Amino acid sequence: MTLESSPEKPVPLREMASAVKNYVERCGRLWVSAQIIELTRRKGFNFLTLRDTSEEVSVSVSLSSTVLDAAGPVSEGMAVTAELKPTVWLKSGRLSYECSDLRPTGEGQLLAQIEQLKRLLQAEGLFDPALKKTLPGLPRGIGLITGKDSAAERDVVVNVRGRWPAARIVTRHSLVQGPGAASGVMAALKDLDADPSVDVIVIARGGGSVEDLLPFSDEGLVRAVAAARTPIVSAIGHEVDTPILDLVADLRASTPTDAAKRIVPDAHEELAGINGLRAYMVTMMSTFIDGHMAALTSWRERPVLRDPLSRFQVYAQQIETLRGTLHHVTSAFLDREHAKVSSAKALVGSLGPQSALTRGYSILLDDQGNNISSVSATTVGAHLTAHVSDGRLSVNVTDITKENNDHN
Fold first, then answer.
1. Residue 407 has pLDDT above 50, yes or no
2. How many CB atoms lie within 10 A of CB 167?
3. 114-128+137-265: what fold?
């Protein structure tokens, strides 16, 4: 609809803006091909700047987080196909584009597919660090899966031999690019994983585009690596390349050369370490022996070891001293006891019957040994024994005279 206007009869600005909005929105939704040159994420809503793939034409596009997340991993520089609807904001008269669907194309589409598979495998727990197997310190055999006569094969072999010349490498060649690459790598992996002499397997390939490295994000190969009993080292591409194989492998090496450094030790470093330990052991043993020699010398210088009998001489002197002390104490004790006995003997002698006998008294006993202390205790003709101070007398009783001691 064409608006009629003149200086005398102008139309309101809102009518013109509304007419423009109606005209623009009659274009409807269109699918366009473009390249993302700027991406701004905000809470709930996002903004893209899209540029034509061949001309210097660019537009600002708004889209919801739901649409952006559904597109997969989207980054600046990516080619996309977008469903756009042009519109005009009445308040500002600004022309803008609303995106209702966004789909990466070319490499971006591949990245989106890889991201979806990555999320699926992660949800299953295939990337769990607890599932990672430890690499052997010095493998008996090193399995190598790579392209025949490739730079990756040369980098791994040369660096492994340079670090550990005696290393044994079991190589299985396979396609590392194209439709049959994933199945070829899986076959080689199955062969090496069944070899009990192979302790670690390296899957190596040089750098390349997303399409070139696509076989190493193949779901079948990733699951085969997760199920392998042998530790797997992923050495695909360069540092920035991260196929899904890197996430499920037991160790990710940034390059094939880095893989060689991670799977075998450096013989020169190990030899230097052994020499260092040997020197350390010699030093420790010398210190140990010197310390014990000094201790033995100290013990040897002690008097008891210089003259072992000197200690017995000291003990002999102590014994003599103790013997003299014992003799003195014993003599003093005996003298005191002898004095006590003599005193007791004298006391007993002064109080006993012998003392009375000495003074002229005697003791009379009859034939039965009974004491005769009264004239009434014997008879005339009795035979008595008189004990005096220096012997005995036999006495016959011829007369008995009883004295009267009554003085009343």
1. no
2. 20
3. Rossmann fold (3.40.50)
